[in-house]
Amino acid sequence: MSTDPISAQQLAQQLGPVVTAIGALGTAAFGLVEALKSAFQSINRIGLKHIQETITGLTPDQTLAGEPATPPNALPRKNILETVEANWVNGTDLSSQKAIAKSLIKLQLAPGNAVAMAAKTNVDAALLTQVAQKTAAGTALTQAESDVNARFDLILTALLDEAYQLSDQVYRNNTRTLAAAIAVLLALIGGWSLDSGSFWTSSDAVVAILVGVLATPLAPIAKDVSTALATAVNTMQLVKKAGKP
Fold first, then answer.
1. Pairwise CA distance, residues 224 & 125, whole Å
2. Contact, 47 vs 171, CB < 8 A?
């Protein structure tokens, strides 16, 4: 076997395939995370807690005597939370999830809980109560009531958007971390399979860990990075040739 040191040009030419291979490891790790979702349902529920807390706060119980626990033509809070969970677990489009949650929450608005909902959305409680009463009776709203109803709608949208965006970020961060851990494990297994005798006491173990850590960030851009490296090498070769007399 040759022991000649590798030249800078050869190293640069080999970086492309190395980056591609590391990216492929990251892709495989993400694939395993997707496969694990069917076996471990808790993965699909990552981030759901904050959404549930937000929606629970926006669907307060009726407080007026004689009012039903759930307004007519509205789902109980339990069913709303179940619907929200089903959409989240099944990966429904985020904008659709927010729209469905918003519609179900607005159906909860009634004279018995309008004051509590006004407190959660920071709008005028008396006017929102009138909105709930007139909506139930099918009566036209005044300009002031329409303004409050529009502000209630806007703030409700903002609160749900915040909850879903933060929860989606938590979900993506956690699944990426899980994929990175799987990639490190796969890299260590691969390195150990090549040299089981001295692998754990050599620098190869450190290299395997670094490869695993880099795999998930490189997975989406590995092809572009590899192409860019090859282009850079070819460009420098042309520049050097052009500079020679």
1. 55
2. yes
* CA 202 remoteness from chain centre: 38
Q: Is the pLDDT of residue 2 over 50?
A: no
Residue 72 burial (C-beta neighbours within 10 Å; 0-12, 13-18, 19+): exposed
How far is residue 191's CA from residue 187's CA, in Å, rounded to a whole number? Answer: 6
Q: How far is CA 117 from CA 44, 79, 83, 98, 156, in A?
A: 30, 18, 20, 18, 10
Return mean pLDDT, the chain: 84
pTM over 0.85: no
- Which tokens in the block code for residue 132? 């709930």
Helices (H), 48-112: 48-58, 77-89, 94-108
Domain coordinates in residue numbering, the chain:
8-43+177-243, 48-173
